[in-house]
Amino acid sequence: MSDVWYLALAYGAVWLGLVVYLFRLGGQAAALRKEVTSLKATMRETRVEEAGEQPERLVAGVTREAAG
Q: pTM, whole model, 2 decimals?
């Protein structure tokens, strides 16, 4: 085989790797988008359940009363 054949083979392998990587990256982005949507829905449900209540402010795991 000539040097050009090896060059073309390497070029094809790089492109194949890039395409596979981009498809995997797209799949991960879709999964993250789905998870963010789920978390937003959970937050909305929590806010509806706590409507009328004042949420406690927590700073580094310490409540306002304990920081006193």
A: 0.57
